[in-house]
Design the sequence.
């Protein structure tokens, strides 16, 4: 195997060969910053997924290492992510109770299935399938998921217990339980939320005003959330708030990630198949869009089909080391990028950092209040809420607006899986509906030019003997009959008609149904004494028509340009 | 209500006002011929649907009358039809045993539901929905249904008993039961098949050679099947074949169609909803294509949305008079057309003829062997088998071929409902797949012209500073990323690139996702120091873009023609 072949098999070879001391320094600095940020995030997302905190650390080690080997993005950081964690909780919730051993096993199985699907999709080059998730559907879904997560975490922050998973149930539960709020918990949680919101904008200027150098201020500002969590833990320990009912993380087992294995249970796999697929697709879409955005800033590229393989390997890695479904996260990848990571080695160094945390740092997590972790989640996900998309799509296109709205509402009211499926199905149906009613314009000659325009919009020349129709859509089964109807109507209205010319400049394809329709149109026109002509037929369409009898039987001609057709058939229009 | 408004509400007013003696004569002659043909067909299709023979007569009376009032085709004959009868048998078979009272009630309920759906679709103008059944799917479905019907009737003709409904089960059953064939039944049935095949071509020439006038020979030839059935009944009576185990029609109650009522059982309705919808759509498609073909021959038109209402009324009529689902049949409509029917009054006269048959003729049906009825079905449906469509679509387009093949095989192997659904879903997926991978050509200037062509196919002029891409598809969510990838690849390859021009002549729509992709492309090009321009943007697309910020932020220009863009941006290419 040549070096080139190996590099093509393993993207890491591309950057590993050129690795030098400067790159190492940049990558190490980035790794330290990202490690500090990832520790609380990993704990928080594990609890969002309904799993013990150490699982969040485990899920951030093997996936990062595997992505470093297989990934094509230089800066993507793979690990637990908010929306995927919520989807994980939803999927497992139907099969096991939070806290049970079975819950953890199903999380591992889900990561394994999702990883296998991603690997298969990558090997079969099915990355394009993700594009059937339209931007409106993704926007609606992410916003709804973020609201759903925030509402779910709010009950932890307020220290109340609520049954129910859907948004409106959660909101109603919060309102009706307001009297039972646990005051200390709420005080801790809400101050943390306030601190985090302030820290985003206010911390760095404050540190700078204290005279700290920019680079240090920057790094410390990023460590703000960690400092906040540390302070809340110290206060809880000192005032013994956990004795008054404030829930804390408690003892987290220290040690290496365990070797784990999915549950080989076909009935379970069958039930997890749809959630695993949805998790795979959502994770892939999130990861690729982050990766592409960051790669473009350095004029680099990522390869979606190889990203599938890398994410697949990461998830299988997560499954084998006691983790749960992971993907490339926006927040951590941006931090990695801003911190100057040059190669995926930065990710590998981060993995080592988190491994050290899992080995040494877990006792320090004992007194961390659950409410502060929830606060970090709420602040993180609220930045994902984007309701402007409703206004933007409303102005741009009603179809896109409906896709956003339906995805948003169904996700809120019936959960992530139903919402995503409803959005995809609706957006495909709207697209098909649109293409099934193509714009067909009757065109006439703009005097003094060779241009043809819609007779309803422009002053153009027409002839009673010749009609020109321009179809603004590829012809396929769902819209072929529309053209038939239009031609039938035209012929019934114009007794003097002798020629019909179809201007085909916007017809990118004609399928077998549309061809049969054209033959039917041709037959009916023949029966009625009208000749059918085509103009401006595209190369690939013409190639295919030439394989059929249609052109042979055609009683009219195929013209290169529409002007040529009209000059020939109705010279009185041209002169 | 003015006459015009009434005519628009009831299509019959259009022809009824102009009715005169010549039209009456033509219609009466046509009615007599069609009545003779319809009697055995109605019996046969009732037995195909698993219903007693008289139900076939009932289903041919009220529907014909109602279609005469509401229909827009002058010659369509509505009644029991082979494929719809098979679908009816399949749908009822899951809920009741053949011969039970419940079976008949469900048939009535199915006709009622199907009629109501057709009426609603007509009132909501949803006729276009039928176009989502592509020609390949319909062809595959009709051929498979015909084979399925023929195999099912062959067991009656051979007098064997076979469990199983699917084609391969039936064929295997026939082969394994060949030793148990009932010889007399098989002799009657197979001679009838042979006679019918011969009668189609041979009977008229024979009658003419006997010196009969053409018109009479024509009419008698059409009565051939009826004569065959009569002869088989007389022979059965004379030789008492029914005593040896030949199954005969037996006593058919004489009388008017009964008043009947669907079963008001929501649970049943829910289970019948999908079959009723499929029956409605298939019936509508069959009826409309027959109606359109015949109308066009006389330069008449039919209106699909009003056809829905007419077929809906016909089916509700069938439900209220002890019938089962009906639609406009090909064979009988063509006979009606050829026999010179001028208006739907011919249909009304046919209804009277069949009513007389139901009142007076039923004793004559006693000795008709079931095998001869099955023989008429086999001969009728085998003319629907069209396997050439496989060869034709194979040559034309692999996507269309797969749609035919999958519909055909799934219908044969898993039944009519599964086959139809598989075909529709597959053809939509193939279409979406095709549009998700649009043809994107890099184009260059054909020297000495203002035309631009694919750089890979033609000798054209290009510039290292300017790239021209032509996208041959509307941009929407499923293909937007393809353009992003293509542009990313292009920019990564061409360090000297300063301008990218998208030629938009074949872009009929840009949805919100594609707009976001364009914005992302624009952002990445800006980051890379490349300017993005558009040329030949269509009016409706431009209208919509002008509602957005995109054009305002665009770092390039929008040119009317691509030539203009290139002259401006890379004048060295033009000179």
Sequence:
């Amino acid at each position: 195997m040549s070096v080139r072949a190996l590099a093509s098999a393993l993207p890491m070879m591309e950057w590993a060969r050129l690795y030098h001391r400067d790159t190492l320094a940049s990558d190490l600095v980035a790794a330290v910053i990202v490690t500090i940020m990832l520790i609380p995030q990993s704990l928080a997302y594990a609890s969002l997924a309904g799993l013990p905190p150490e699982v969040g650390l485990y899920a951030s080690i093997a996936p990062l290492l595997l992505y470093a080997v297989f990934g094509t993005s230089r800066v993507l950081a793979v690990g637990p992510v908010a929306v995927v964690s919520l989807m994980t909780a939803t999927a497992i919730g139907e099969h096991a109770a939070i806290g049970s051993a079975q819950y953890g096993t199903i999380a591992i199985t889900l990561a394994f299935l999702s990883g296998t699907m991603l690997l298969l999709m990558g090997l079969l080059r099915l990355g394009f399938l993700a594009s059937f998730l339209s931007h409106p559907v993704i926007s609606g879904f992410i916003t709804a998921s973020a609201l759903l997560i925030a509402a779910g975490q709010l009950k932890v922050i307020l220290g109340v217990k609520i049954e129910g998973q859907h948004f409106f149930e959660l909101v109603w539960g919060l309102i009706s339980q307001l009297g039972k709020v646990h005051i200390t918990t709420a005080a801790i949680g809400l101050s943390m939320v306030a601190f985090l919101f302030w820290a985003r904008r206010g911390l760095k200027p404050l540190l700078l005003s204290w005279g700290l150098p920019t680079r240090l201020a920057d790094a410390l500002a990023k460590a703000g959330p960690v400092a906040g969590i540390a302070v809340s833990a110290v206060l809880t320990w000192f005032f013994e708030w956990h004795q008054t009912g404030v829930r804390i993380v408690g003892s987290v087992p220290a040690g290496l990630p365990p070797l784990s294995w999915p549950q080989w249970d076909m009935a379970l796999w069958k039930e997890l198949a749809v959630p695993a697929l949805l998790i795979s697709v959502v994770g892939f879409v999130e990861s690729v869009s982050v990766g592409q955005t960051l790669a473009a800033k350095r004029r680099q590229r990522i390869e979606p089909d190889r990203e599938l393989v890398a994410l697949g390997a990461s998830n299988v890695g997560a499954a084998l080391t006691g983790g749960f479904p992971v993907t490339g996260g926006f927040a951590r990848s941006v931090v990695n990028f801003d911190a100057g990571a040059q190669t995926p080695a930065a990710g590998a160094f981060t993995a080592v950092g988190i491994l050290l945390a899992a080995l040494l740092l877990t006792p320090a997590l004992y007194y961390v209040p659950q409410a502060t972790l929830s606060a970090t989640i709420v602040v993180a996900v609220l930045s994902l809420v984007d309701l402007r998309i409703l206004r933007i799509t409303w102005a741009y296109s009603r179809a896109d607006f409906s896709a956003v709205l339906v995805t948003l509402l169904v996700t809120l009211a019936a959960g992530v899986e139903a919402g995503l499926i409803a959005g995809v199905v609706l957006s495909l149906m709207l697209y098909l509906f649109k293409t099934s009613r193509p714009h067909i314009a009757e065109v006439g000659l703009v005097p003094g030019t060779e241009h043809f325009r819609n007779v309803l919009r422009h002053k153009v020349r027409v002839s009673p003997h010749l009609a020109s129709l321009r179809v603004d859509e590829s012809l396929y089964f769902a819209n072929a009959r529309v053209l038939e109807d239009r031609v039938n109507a035209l012929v019934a209205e114009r007794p003097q008609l002798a020629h019909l010319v179809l201007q085909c400049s916007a017809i990118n394809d004609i399928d077998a149904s549309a061809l049969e329709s054209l033959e039917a149109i041709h037959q009916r026109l023949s029966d009625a004494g009208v000749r059918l002509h085509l103009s401006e037929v595209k190369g690939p369409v013409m190639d295919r028509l030439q394989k059929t009898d249609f052109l042979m039987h055609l009683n009219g001609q195929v013209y290169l340009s529409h002007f040529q057709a009209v000059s020939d058939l109705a010279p009185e229009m041209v002169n």
